[in-house]
Amino acid sequence: MSKIGIYYGSTTGNTQDVAEEIAKKLNVDKADLHDVSKADTNYAAYDVLLFGSPTLGLGDLQDDWEYYIDKVKAADLSGKKVALFGCGDSSSYSDTFGDAVGKIYDAIKGKGCEFIGQVSTEGYTYDSSEAVVDGQFVGLLIDNDNESSLTDQRIALWTEDLKKVI
Fold first, then answer.
1. Which has the closest alpha carbon to 25: 133, 162, 145?
2. Which candidate, 157, 153, 133, places its Cα nearest to that of 144?
3. Which intervals hold domain Flavodoxin-like (predicted)?
């Protein structure tokens, strides 16, 4: 399997928990799990990058990602496989569900990376999302506020799909 680096921002701990669970499922060492508030963008050691952010407020990136996203945009992502994940609230913020994941996607598309890990929107309840491209989510979206009973299954299915392409 390819060398994987996981980069996440987390305010309440939900996205960090998801990142750690993804790391377990993909056998990613803790040293390759990075909080973006302390991370650099030297991605040379990795073949695959996973970027995760919760959506805050009305579709905003998590605070640490607000600063980190410009660094990612300036980084060399050519030849890398990139998968995205994030947390959101599909009930209270149904018109901006997972928008932060869409913002990360928009910031790095065209940077020479290959996006993997798209997820069907089937089974999700929301009104609108910047994370939907060509009828699918650009990555895994988790709603621990309203659909926590689906979190483990969604992570397990997503990581199994990732294993087929990394």
1. 162
2. 153
3. 4-163
- Residue 140 in contact with residue 19, Cβ under 8 Å? no
CA distance 103 to 98: 9
| Rounded (5°) CA angle 100-13-30 | 95
Give the separation between CA 135 and CA 38, rounded to whole angstroms.
Answer: 34
* pLDDT tens, residue by residue, 44-59: 999 999 999 999 989 9
CATH number of domain containing 124: 3.40.50.360
* Domains in the chain, number: 1
Q: Of 162, 117, 147, 142, which Cα lies nearest the Cα of 17?
A: 142
- CA–CA separation, 26 and 39 (whole Å): 20
Q: Look at residue 1 in the predicted model and tell me its pLDDT.
A: 62
Looking up tokens 């939900």 gives: 14
